[in-house]
Amino acid sequence: MKSQLQNVVSKAIFWKGEGNINAAFDGGDDVRQKEPTVEVTVEQAGEQGREQWSSPVEFLLSCIAMSVGLGNVWRFPFVALENGGGAFLIPYILVLMFIGKPLYYMELCMGQFASAGSVKVWEVSPAFRGVGYGQAIATWAVVTYYVSLMGLTVYYFFASFTSELPWSVCSENAPQTCLDAFRNGTELATSLGINVTNLTSAAEEYFSNEVLQKDPNGLANGLDAPEWKLTLCLLFSWIVLFVVLAKGVQSAGKAAYFTALFPYVVLFIMLIRGATLEGALDGVLFFISPRWGKLLEPGVWYAAVDQSFFSLSVGFGSITMFSSYNSFRHNVYRDAAIISVTDTLTSLLAGFTTFAILGHLAKLLGVSVDQVVKGGGTSLAFVSYPDVLSRFQYVPQLFSVLFFLMLFTLGVGSASALTGCIITIICDEFPRFKKWIVTLVVCIAGFLLGLFYVTPQGQYVLELINYYGGGFIIFILVVFEIAAVHWVYGVNNFCRDIEFMLGKKTGVYWKFCWAFLIPVLLSVIFIYSQIIAEPLKTGTYVFTPDIIAFGICLAVLACLMVPIFFFVEVFRRRNSSASLWEAVLATFRPTAEWCPKDPILRQEYRQFTDVNKPALEGIDNPIHPVDSTVSMASLHNGHNGTVTQYNTSV
Known about the structure:
Radius of gyration: 27 Å
Shape: elongated
Number of strands: 6
Low-confidence stretches: 1-48, 615-650
Number of helices: 23
Strand order of the largest sheet: 1-6
Mean pLDDT: 82
Helix content: 55-70%
Structural class: mainly alpha
């Protein structure tokens, strides 16, 4: 109660012109020794203030759980293999250092400084508010298929509780070329008169025909009804996400202790087990052997950026959302370094673990490692890995249960962050809505959209949405994001805000990356990669032009949010501006809401900016904030109330 009264007094002092403050508050020491009494009458409405993480550890673990996801285990090893093996580590680490890490730090600072999600944070330059909405579309597109992958891990998890793993033996309807886990592949190939590479493993047969019931014709015949078992697994995944997110960061923070740490336990168990298998060294050497010629291909650099964005979750808005629940002085500089390094080391750990096990599988089949990995992404996680697990001599069920529980846990950590970003956007816009109700509605909507991915054509839909709804959009929107913050608002202004928040000067490395290197590199890599891009395909199936047109429409819709909301912001300011041109200029200026939400910190920030105003030079544009349409009284701790009467006496 005492802190609440102090906050109200702070507001009364800061809101000049709303009453007379007793001069004793500014008197000397002899006056301050008196015991003040304060009478305050407050009308309160709305929510009780923006929630915060229970501890800095929960925030750090939640960020690690968000960044270390499914992409580290089944996506990174295959992307590295396709793009030069060990040579891919060079562009990947360079991208992490000069693009991924600076963007991660920037988004952490933006969210923490403004205490706002990925849309409200654009008070820094309202003309670019559409970037936040575009990122929301991309985030929503990704999270819908991401949870469907979690549903697959649930399916395999429960299927592991059998005396014999179901993907270790071929079904009765399987073709003659199907190879059981414990059958000699060379002998079967010789008896059939075919090459051993033409054999199909029982795990691949199980995944395609039993689990997915995949349509070999792709999307040519439209979509069939969802598969009921996968639908139940999808429903289970969304229920778990609802439980994790229902109470906001309080419940998500507690879950992070498990979702961030448990996967490492399983990864190290699998690495130790894989290192003891015959052929493991061959698999690891195959993984790290560099093919230097790949470094000259722009597609490799595009893949490095895409993997960095997907892994770190940069550009999706979830980083901004997480940091918005921090205290204003929290050291995100340290956290950005820890998280980016942890993510990279985890990707390498997953790569060594995966290819140690795949090397063993290649040894058993008598083929090279590249012939074992017949597909990326889901094939690696749900075909190659299960095939090896089924060949373990001792308790393969135990390793299978641990592996798929790890995958599900990784999925929960990332999906909860992506879904939480959507929930925060809605709750920031409509603060009177109860968070658990918003969470419930979002989860129900996500489940209904996820039904597209559990149809026999679901994997084709997933590939389409992943390409156009994830990586394609984010490349474009991140360039707008960088330009808005560091070219329009000004890199020096932004660094000044960081200095006030963290008490740290921003070095040349960060300024160079933000203001020049990132926008230039992203633009060049993206444009050139699209020029030389081949038609989108998955396996042997090539997407038809009409299907690709749908994916392009999704990307265009997200990008159109930028000009649409630019015109919306101009329209909002038209009546209060002297001319249309003045209204346009006003949309590029930071509003009064781009500042700390605590009234005392707000006053300190105004004083700090008055003393540390950068010169009008270069790309900086330090323009005085314009009036905001949001009530000042709603800024501190989320209160929508107004101070209607106060009296002070000493």
